[in-house]
Design brief:
- The protein is of the alpha/beta class and about 280 residues long.
- The chain has three domains: about 90 residues, Translation factors (Elongation Factor Tu (Ef-tu), domain 3, Beta Barrel); about 120 residues, Nucleotide-binding domain of ferredoxin-NADP reductase (FNR) module (Rossmann fold); about 70 residues, no CATH class.
- It is about 30% helix and about 30% strand.
- The strands form four sheets. Strands 11-10-9-8-12-13-16 form a seven-stranded mixed beta sheet, with helices on both faces. Strands 1-2-6-5 form a four-stranded antiparallel beta sheet.
- α3 links the parallel β8 and β9.
- The longest helix has 16 residues.
- The N and C termini lie far apart (about 40 Å).
Length: about 280
């Protein structure tokens, strides 16, 4: 069960992994995710399903090997199984027929925006894609995005590939040039905040996908609380996609910082993750 059937290196420390999960493949929608436990005793990882093949009964996820759990997942050989998968989870992305849509993603956000682009294109939209990365070494899914998008722009922070710029610089230029009907943004909090501000200034709807810390993805622990529309929402069951106008990005940023401090704390520290989260709620 949940056997790895294919693996592909996409960029430095980034892999695509195809897993047999027929029940999930038959039900998952763009924007939804799974909670995947690589092996005991590693914790579960929230991963967007970037592609599902109902005929083969497989789903594809993309993992950035930056911690023990993600490295353990990346090390699982073809033919071996992961410990457990729960899903599909979260609400599907809002997909409508807008006309001209811009999809902007930075970092691992490119993996999350790929199924959204595919669904928007299938709905009859013209899709312009923007992918931003720190460098060419960690740029991912360029070929796949070129297939799905009518036009695509690539930026790198260090100028090692295509244009040296931030993704939001290109977004600003395109919003001035074209009559854009909607924007989808997935990536860093700073990028989504700036993109939402640009969209709001022009009255263009924007959808953003948040990635707060999640323990089980079922809304039980409450660790993924985010402030949206002046209320606390659970990203795992009420998101992860939200209206960018309504997201309190200051709150999201502070919660991300809380998570990082908790992860850096010594294992025997009394300031556990849960204590830090409690202080933020």
């Amino acid at each position: 069960m949940f056997k790895v059937v294919q693996k592909q290196a996409l960029a430095q420390d980034i892999k695509r992994i195809d897993i047999a999960a027929p029940d999930i493949a038959a039900r998952v929608a763009p924007g939804q995710f799974i909670m995947l436990t690589p092996q005991a005793p590693h914790h579960a990882l929230p991963l967007t399903v970037v592609e599902a093949d109902e005929r083969k009964g497989t789903i594809a996820v993309i993992v950035h090997e930056i911690g023990q759990a993600t490295r353990a997942l990346g090390a699982i050989s073809i033919g071996h199984s992961v410990a457990n998968i729960t899903g599909p989870l979260g609400r599907p992305a809002v997909i409508e027929q807008y006309g001209l849509v811009i999809c902007v993603a930075t970092g691992i956000g490119a993996a999350q925006i790929l199924p959204v682009c595919r669904a928007l294109k299938k709905k009859g939209n013209k899709v312009i894609g923007i992918i931003g990365a720190r460098s060419k070494k960690v740029l991912m899914l360029e070929a796949q995005m070129r297939v799905l998008c009518d036009e695509i722009f690539i930026t790198t922070n260090d100028g090692s590939y295509e244009r040296r710029a931030l993704a939001t610089q290109v977004l600003r230029e395109l919003l001035e040039k074209y009559k854009v009907r909607a924007v989808y943004a997935i990536g860093s909090v700073e990028m989504m905040r700036e993109a939402s501000g640009m969209a709001r200034s022009k009255g263009i709807p924007i959808r953003v996908t948040l990635s707060p810390y999640m323990v089980n993805g079922l809304g039980i622990c409450g660790s993924c609380r985010v402030r949206v529309g002046g209320q606390m929402r659970l990203a795992c069951v009420e998101g992860p996609e939200f209206d960018g106008y309504e997201v309190d990005f200051d709150d999201v940023y502070q919660r991300d910082q809380t998570r990082e401090r908790a992860c850096e704390a010594p294992k025997n520290s009394t300031k556990s993750f849960w204590a830090l989260i409690k202080n933020r709620t």
